[in-house]
Specification:
The strands form five sheets. This protein has a twelve-stranded mixed beta sheet with strand order 1-2-3-4-5-12-6-11-10-9-8-7, sandwiched between helices. By secondary structure, the chain is α+β, with helices and mostly antiparallel strands. 44% of the residues are buried. The chain is globular and about 110 Å long.
């Protein structure tokens, strides 16, 4: 095959009647300008550029340099180009390289055969001729219709390519990310939180980088048909373009490169459209990573850095240009790692270009569908490798689209409260529980421990992230309108007040009461000789062998101080020279912090004194053994909090209630963000620490000893029943057993008879949810079990039941979402345990966390297969179920069963267009579904019907939901919000939210359920589920809400709100200024009702009446 005549011997090229004959012509400047005008005309008409940027660069260069190898075919009329084809030559030094052929016909001349004549000329002897096999032709598409999975390149161009003997060999996707304010904040947050595995230095491009960049580009794109072959001339031409900005060309280099070397590891070249009509767009023009640095997360870091720069353009107060409307990029459809990464960052397929080549067609020479290409191995390594190649778009449809009408009145960003300050306010409410003299003493101490742990995570994640964004210049104002610097100032002031108050409560309120109860925290000087000798012997045996004193001198630099560890700053003196030296001793965190001086017999007896001594005090007393021959001059305890890469979810209870053990992931040697020191520290030592740690004085917290009150947890656990909440026994739900009996409830029989609403911990988890799965595992009629597991443990009876079911031959699917971000199977042994037993373990969807709480059992019954479901608000974790307040629904409702089956199929397989009738599912329909319900309440209010909205959740942050609630309030709808943690909504603001009430309930159990009720004109609609009102839940997680259908259950949940919102219930009230006020006593000073105690008592009464 060498000529078009051979391709079509019976159909020689004919010039269409009335059309100018295309001819091969020299690319003069005038003709190049005519081609550019034609290309712009076509782009405005088609929405797609007919020529690539590289083609136009080479065409312009050919007009100036006759040696440039390029073919130009034009059909001209009256000096105007009506059709043009441009072929760029392959590299003569590279036999495997290919040239490209692109063509365009004026929109008003199409359909008359001009395009066919143009290409036949280009492919014939006058044109490419014998070189044709080394060329590839591009057909530029007209959109993927929002990722409809339907190939939609112009049909005429596709047919023409096939007629000329060409077949599709490559697809290039255009992907797009619309830039809303929420997207800009999300990009900034992701940029700040993502760090590559290896330390690198990011900077912008300078002309001196040209040679080093060309070498890097050739390595990174060694197999890319165009990018990897860029020359110095190509680079100079592109950097001379109007769209080029050096400040948008990011380079990553090693620390050696930062000192002037050439250690370039990667780059991100951005582009800004300068000549398009309508809103401007930015482009992820090229991202490349050196082969040795691929797989380290550097590609994602560079991508985010460029995206954040594009997102911030034109957004500042002094901006000289308009903000960009969107960011676009082009990526090979079969480059699955890159496509997966871009999808996880929010990009959606928008357009497609297809490359055609001569030669024999395959089984199907039509353009390949994108979904097919995505399953092929990636051949191009222009981005860091991603371990999982499946993509979000194949598994779940793109996030919902919704609009919210404007609010009435002039309300700007001040309508939102700052989320960081609100988080500190939540911890202040927890601290107020520790201040409550009516609470049990050891529970007050436990609340002090929880506050300490919560503050650690706040500094490690929220403060560290904000500080890093400020340092790198990528921070943006918050939704509340605060600049990053204003946020830091408010956080610092609030956190200092909170920590001082925290220490004061411990020393002035709780510690004296502990001593009244014969519980003492003592110093070495308080001990008698016998106790000292006993502790010294214990020190020698259990502590001394694992201590490591670290000197600081010219041969020993200041040591790395790990985050959260207690340390002793020690000054020793050499008696020979009198010279004083600094050393550091780390307090081992694997040992008990508060050592029992007198043993367990005294700790568990209220009649005998029980003494505890801090571990650091014992170590300090024996420092002479660590520094023999030196004199110990003084010592002080200090503690550093660092930026650490933790899988922290502020709205996940396990991270807020630190009675649970926290899992630390992928620890980073991040910069310090807080230094805690004893208030008795020598100022000279403090200055040394501040200097060496490079920390600001505002980040220093001077507190009375002991630091880190997490360490009092073993005192909290002493067996003093009078100082703890009374023990309680969870009862089997009355919906499962009509009478309290020793016999286990038949969960399937009860659920067949009626839906079962569970309210934990008041209703037993073990005799309901756990029994549901255990009975399913043992039931020979059960055919299949499907289960989500967000957090559980290897010794969980839930895991045991799934293993038992799999070993019995049942089909078992476990959809696991675990905390390890990148290597789940290597980090979670119980997931392997499930797989080894024959359970199908699936790890969710790239870019989304599976946070929904679902269980599905398929059972064979007399009338066929029946589906039983459990949908809840809490994790399938028996231990946490004892002190989390959660709701769950057991049902065999056919429609709910169908929806849950569809959702499981979507999560484990490919079903991006799944729809649901009884569920609201994020990220597809949950936010929009709630907003639709809110809008209906507005309509009911205007029609004079019953209208009311009530929401109970952990956090209320999402701006779209909050604005919808504001609009409901403005329409006169009553809105009640019960929130445990963060709340960015301002209630009671005249003209905006005077019909909104916000309450908070904290106590013995961690309030974790999410409930949504709507009056619906007198026919209440109620949902329960897993989602909080935060961006992460609504946009980046799979969440599910289920509609409650049983009228009795609806009434129970409406009554729940009545109790939580009652003026007779102990709650915190939020006002429009963001101030929380506790209402715990009535007018006579008597404690108001504790809603959690009320539910415990009601279950106890039901149990006794059943037995009676």
């Amino acid at each position: 095959m060498s000529t078009s005549a051979e391709l079509h011997p019976e159909n020689p090229s004919q010039t269409p009647s009335g059309q100018p004959h295309p001819a091969v012509l020299a690319p003069t400047p005038e003709r190049v300008r005519a081609v550019e005008r034609l290309a712009e005309q076509a782009r405005e008409h088609d929405g797609a550029a007919p020529f690539s940027e590289q083609t136009l660069v080479q065409l312009r260069r050919a007009a100036r340099d006759e040696t440039e190898r390029i073919l130009l075919v034009i059909a001209e009329e009256d000096g105007q180009a009506l059709a043009a084809a441009v072929a760029t030559a392959p590299d003569p030094q590279d036999e495997e390289s290919t040239g490209t052929l692109e063509a365009v016909v004026a929109p008003d001349r199409r359909g008359a055969g001009l395009g066919r004549a143009l290409l036949e000329t280009a492919l014939g002897e006058e044109g490419l001729g014998e070189d044709l096999p080394r060329y590839r032709a591009w057909v530029h598409g007209s959109g993927l219709a929002g990722d409809s999975r339907e190939y939609s390149a112009p049909l005429a161009a596709v047919q023409l390519a096939k007629d000329l003997g060409l077949h599709a060999v490559r697809e290039l996707w255009k992907m797009r990310l619309e830039l809303t304010d929420a997207d800009r904040r999300s990009i900034a947050e992701q940029t700040a939180s993502h760090e590559p595995a290896a330390p690198v230095h990011l900077r912008t491009w300078t002309p001196e980088d040209a040679e080093a960049w060309l070498r890097l580009n050739a390595q990174a794109f060694a197999e890319h048909p165009e990018q990897g072959r860029l020359t110095r001339a190509d680079l100079e031409a592109r950097t001379a373009e109007d769209w080029f900005r050096p400040e948008g060309f990011f380079l990553a280099e090693t620390s050696e490169g930062a000192d002037g070397g050439s250690g370039l590891l990667g780059f991100h070249w951005t582009k800004i459209e300068t000549d398009q009509q309508g809103p401007r767009e930015g482009e992820v023009y090229a991202v490349g990573v050196a082969p040795d640095a691929q797989g380290t997360g550097l590609g994602k870091a560079l991508t985010l850095a460029g995206m954040d720069w594009l997102a911030r353009l034109g957004t500042g107060e002094d901006a000289q240009e308009e903000p960009l409307a969107a960011i676009v990029l082009y990526v090979d459809a079969d480059n699955a790692p890159a496509v997966s990464l871009y999808r996880s960052l929010g990009f959606v397929p928008w357009d497609v270009d297809t490359m055609y080549a001569p030669g024999p067609a395959g089984q199907d020479d039509a353009a390949p569908a994108p979904s097919t290409n995505l399953t092929r191995p990636a051949e191009i390594s222009d981005i860091a490798k991603i371990e999982r190649a499946e993509t979000r778009g194949d598994r779940i449809d793109e996030p919902e689209h919704f609009s919210t009408p404007l609010l009435q009145g002039d309300f700007g960003s001040e309508r939102f409260l700052d989320r960081e300050t609100s988080w500190l306010d939540f911890n202040t409410r927890v601290l107020e529980l520790a201040e409550d003299p009516n609470l049990y003493l050891l529970e007050r101490l436990n609340f002090l421990s929880i506050v300490a742990s919560n503050l650690d995570e706040f500094f490690m994640v929220r403060v560290a992230g904000l500080k890093r964004r400020i340092a790198t210049g990528i921070a943006v104002p918050s939704a509340a309108g605060l600049t990053p610097e204003e946020q830091m100032e408010e956080i610092s002031e609030s956190a200092h007040r909170l920590q001082q108050r925290h220490a004061q409560v411990f020393h002035e309120q709780v510690l004296p009461r502990l001593e009244e109860e014969n519980l003492f925290i003592v110093g070495w000087e308080d001990l008698e000789e016998e106790a000292r000798q006993r502790l010294s012997a214990e020190f020698q045996e259990r502590v001394f062998p694992i201590l490591t004193p670290l000197a600081v001198d010219p041969a020993h630099p200041f040591p790395y101080i790990s985050g959260l560890a207690l340390n002793l700053a020690v000054i020793v003196r050499n008696p020979q020279t009198g010279k004083e030296l600094f050393a550091r001793v780390k307090v081992p965190d694997q040992l008990t912090r508060m050592i029992s001086v007198d043993g367990p017999k005294t700790t568990n007896s209220s009649s005998r004194p029980a003494r505890f001594i801090p571990l650091e005090t014992v170590i300090a007393q024996h420092l002479d053994q660590l520094f023999p021959g030196m004199e110990v001059v003084e010592h002080h305890v200090f503690r550093v909090t660092r930026n650490e890469d933790l899988e922290v979810e502020e709205d996940d209870a396990e991270n807020l209630l630190k009675a649970l053990e926290k899992e630390l992931l992928r620890r980073r040697f991040g910069p310090p963000v807080r230094l805690e020191v004893e208030d008795s520290i020598n100022p000279a030592i403090l200055d040394l620490l501040v200097s060496e740690l490079r920390i600001d004085e505002s980040e220093v917290y001077q507190l009375p000893a002991p630091l880190d009150l997490r360490g009092v947890s073993n005192i909290v656990k002493v067996n003093r029943p009078r100082l703890h909440y009374p023990t309680y026994v969870a009862h089997t739900s009355r919906f499962l057993n009509a009478a309290e009996t020793a016999k286990a409830a038949d969960v399937f029989a009860a659920t067949r008879d009626h839906d079962v609403l569970l309210h934990h911990p008041y209703d037993s988890f073990a005799t309901s949810v756990q029994a549901f799965l255990e009975q399913a595992a043992a039931d020979p009629n059960v055919m299949a079990i499907k289960q989500t597991l967000y957090r559980t443990s290897g010794d969980s009876p839930i895991v045991d039941a799934l293993i038992e079911a799999a070993e019995a031959g049942k089909q078992v699917l476990a959809l696991v979402e675990i905390k390890a971000r990148f290597d789940e199977q290597a980090n979670i042994s119980w997931a392997r345990k499930l797989e080894e037993a024959g359970v199908h373990v699936v790890y969710g969807i790239v870019g989304l966390k599976t946070h929904c709480k679902l269980s599905l059992v398929v059972r064979r019954e007399a009338d066929g297969l029946r589906r039983y479901c459990h949908i809840g608000t809490g994790n399938y974790h028996p231990s946490t179920a004892r002190f989390y307040e959660d709701l769950g629904l057991l049902t065999c409702d056919p429609q709910i069963g169908e929806d849950v089956s569809r959702l499981f199929n979507q999560l484990s397989g490919y079903a991006p267009k799944t729809t649901f009738k009884s569920l609201l599912v994020a990220p597809r329909s949950l936010r929009s579904g709630l907003i639709d319900r809110i809008n209906r309440e507005i309509a009911h209010q205007r029609a004079g019907l019953a209208a009311k909205i009530q929401i109970k959740c952990n956090s209320m942050v999402d701006e779209a939901i909050i604005d919808s609630l504001y609009r409901a309030s403005q329409a006169g709808v009553r809105v009640d919000v019960v929130v445990r943690g963060i709340c960015a909504l301002r209630p009671g603001v005249p003209g905006l939210s005077e019909n909104i009430t916000v309450r908070s309930v904290l106590g013995r159990f961690l309030e974790h359920s999410r409930v949504f009720t709507f009056a619906n004109g007198g026919k209440p609609v109620v949902y329960i589920g897993s989602a909080d009102m935060m961006h992460r839940n609504l946009d980046r997680r799979v969440e599910a809400l289920v509609r409650i259908k049983d009228p009795g259950h609806v009434e129970y949940l409406l009554t729940l709100f009545d109790l939580y919102l009652s003026e007779r219930t102990s709650t915190w009230h939020l006002d429009g200024d963001g101030v929380w006020t506790r209402h715990a006593l009535d007018a006579q000073g008597r404690p108001l009702m504790d809603v959690q105690s009320h539910y415990l008592e009601s279950r106890a009464r039901q149990g006794s009446s059943s037995r009676g």
